[in-house]
UniProtKB/TrEMBL annotation:
Pfam families: HATPase_c (PF02518), HisKA (PF00512). One of its GO terms (molecular function) is phosphorelay sensor kinase activity. It comes from Neptunomonas japonica JAMM 1380. It comes from the Bacteria. This is histidine kinase.
Length: 360
């Protein structure tokens, strides 16, 4: 009994999706990893045939049926799998027949290639962002030092000039120095540590919607689809408002500048379980999707939109998305982006439960 219970706990703690089919190719068992992958419980999937969640290819179904009687295992690479919510996944899966006495069964192990590729992409994004931030911080400090000297010299020069008509030039120097210093301060970001308070993501979104509605005077449709089950989490609500506002305002400006007919921004929240962000796996994550129906992000800057000074707009500073990514990173989360004409999506992923090490 103890050994049986241990085996079950082992299967349920695997990150590999494991499914056991009976002789009729109906689900007998599936571990939690498989339920998350297929976005459905074992109880629900027992009502569906294997052709509705694994493959509807007649040749593949024939191979499955043949395998359970012949006892020959096989593997499929880069197969397409459709989850119950309609998401298409690229997976590798292995089929191993189990010649049990009472009836033969099939053991299917599924590895999601999309997930591995996503982890690699996220780790690369986090690494590049951290390296860029360090480089920018170093350059910003080097720029700030001489700016103070230039401003002071301009002030002294203004006092020595008897001709007040020449003061216009010293005013220009001082104003431009102040403008550059403000830009550098924005690059450096806040020096204060994030506050630790309870944050309600939907209160944050309603605050952002109120600000955006005031800016666009009702000329932009804001649609919401909230998941009420998302709990509060520990963070700095003002900074998260700033991050969300930067992304939403970026979408709003893109819609306005391109004069999109019926401009719309869609805000959707969902709670996701067992999500890997970079190299960290989190039990529960708040996923906020910000979707607009604008022209999309140019492909030549899509992979660098979170870098400072990168902007697709002629008058853009290129700091809004970089600052938003830094704020979400401070909360151990990540912003991802995908774009095509008519649909640009920014996904803000914020862990709802942190390990003790991350929480410190």
């Amino acid at each position: 009994m103890f050994r049986k219970q241990t085996h079950k706990q082992t299967l349920e703690n695997l990150s590999t999706s494991v499914i056991l089919l009976d002789e009729k190719l109906c689900i007998d068992y599936m571990n939690p990893a498989a339920e998350m992958l297929l976005e459905a419980t074992a109880k629900r999937l027992r009502n569906y045939g294997v052709e509705q969640w694994l493959t509807n290819d007649s040749d593949e179904l024939a191979v499955l049926k043949k395998s359970i009687h012949s006892g020959h295992p096989y593997t499929r690479r880069e197969a397409k799998l459709l989850t119950m919510s309609g998401h298409e996944l690229t997976v590798d899966y292995s089929v191993n027949p189990l010649p049990l006495q009472h009836s033969p069964m099939l053991l299917i192990e599924i590895q999601a290639r999309d997930r591995l590729l996503r982890i690699e992409r996220e780790e690369e994004l986090l690494s590049h962002h951290a390296a860029t931030r360090n480089l920018v911080r170093g350059m910003a400090h080097e720029i700030k030092n001489p700016l103070g000297g230039i401003r002071g010299a301009a002030q002294l020069l203004e006092r020595e000039l008897e001709d007040e008509a020449l003061h216009e030039y010293t005013h220009i120097i001082i104003e431009e120095v102040d403008r550059l210093r403000n830009l550098v301060d924005r690059l450096l970001g806040s020096h204060q540590l994030p506050k630790q308070e309870q944050v309600n993501i939907h209160a944050v979104l309603e605050r952002v919607c109120a600000l955006v509605n005031a800016e666009c005077a009702g000329k932009l449709a804001l649609r919401r689809d909230y998941d009420p089950s998302i709990p509060e989490f520990t963070g700095d609500s003002e900074r998260i408002i700033q991050a969300v506002l930067n992304v939403v305002r970026n979408a709003m400006q893109a819609l306005q500048e391109n004069e999109v007919e019926a401009p719309e921004i869609f805000l959707r929240t969902r709670a996701k379980r067992q999500v890997t962000l970079g190299s960290e796996r989190h039990r529960l994550v708040c996923c906020l999707d910000i979707i607009d129906n604008g022209p999309g992000i140019p492909t030549d800057i899509l992979n660098t939109v979170f870098y400072p000074m990168i902007s697709g707009r002629a008058d853009g500073s290129g700091l809004g998305l970089s600052i938003a990514q830094s704020i979400i990173n401070q909360h151990h989360g990540l912003i991802e982006c995908s774009s095509e004409p008519g649909c640009t999506r920014f996904s803000l992923n914020i862990p709802l439960e942190l390990s003790n090490e991350n929480a410190r």
